[in-house]
Amino acid sequence: MNYNKSITATVYVANNDKVLLHQHKKYKTWFPLGGHVEVNEFPHEAAIREVKEESGLDVKLVETEIAPSIELARVKRIPAPFCLLHEGIGGDENFFDFIYIAETIETIPCPESGESKEFKWFSYEELKENDIKPHIKNTALAVLKYLQEKEGSLVMEQDLNTSSMWDDFRFIDLFAGIGGIRLGFESVGGRCVFSSEFDEDACTTYKANFGEHPAGDITKIDAKDIPDFDVLLGGFPCQAFSIIGKKEGFANETCGTLFFDIERILKEKRPKAFMLENVRNLTAHDGGNTFKTIKEHLEALGYHVHAKVLNALDFGPPQKRERIIIVGFIDDVDFEFPEPIPIEERLTLEDILENNVDSKYYVKPHIRDSRLARLKDPNYPKPYISHENMAGSVTPHPYSSALRAGASANYILINDERRPTEREMLRIQGFPDTFRIVVSYGKMKKQCGNSVAVPVIRAVAKQMVKALKDYENKE
Question: Catalytic positions, please?
């Protein structure tokens, strides 16, 4: 196999029954070692020799096909003496991975960039318990499983024989959008077996990040054709219930009634649990009758239903985004919604804003001057994000207002001078920087506005799995 271009390298160094990760100083999250590796007709033997020479480690090469069909991590500007090369061929699903296994390690060389200096070996159980980015965690777990199968005793047998079905459960991702809900549930051990999304642009982003094109219109899919699963997930279309929308509810034939497709799938497949996400106003729509109808239909199917409005601000991202989360269980599970995380653990605008932003994101001078003239507090400290409401009032905040799919071009501005970049919008929703951007700005703006705050979903998923495991242990 010859390479004739520079590719991004992702690294997994394995030693006995552990894999090596490093923690990013700023984002406090774990990554595999990685960096840009210039590869030009680079034979694997030469790569191994270079690793040995640079690190002083005794290494060998293991070729696998275990990773999902996406780039699992892009860790830039961090030089790496070890390389797991990860490349997609022609945009299809054929990917090749190379794991360097360190048979003996005494010291670990730290990058000189200063971006990260903390390294840790993670065992199989430690990976499952740690809040590591889902793609990294799942692939690192797969690395250890693969090595155990190929090498014999690199992973203890009891680590692989899970004691609970909820260590590796199946879910379906309905109204999937760009996969925010999927990310949250993958992070706690879930495995997606079916996805559905109507919007083709969202499907493009979904496939670029998860390696699969979601099935189309859920109204045309027979529930019997959906694979068996344990948890149903759905951020069903919220436009019909939005404060900003037309408030048509179930009278809207294209959106409101899509809830009943969730109902028919639950009725046919009888999963153990479900989680639905919608706008806060769902509880108030039509004097509460819309939510009452939804809850009654779910309870009529035999589910114990829990619902609560959660704010993304309470779970990390700098965004005020209130959404109702509806959780249900076939069994009478003792479930509690997650508590807000400590303030000191939440991200600030400084954490998520990019530097050296391209001039195309900056508004014209007359727009900037108009916003600043209407700013409620001209002396508000930067950085801030201002929001222009329907009355034309401009209010600064140390966080973003809720991203909206159909918002005007200048709905929110950073320091009243520029629009958020695509990456910043994803960060505002709590997506990892490994998430690939493959559509235009306008399409990404719509997709982020329609998506979910990933850390909120992750926190709910963690509580659901905990409650289900506790119930399982009682039984």
Answer: 238
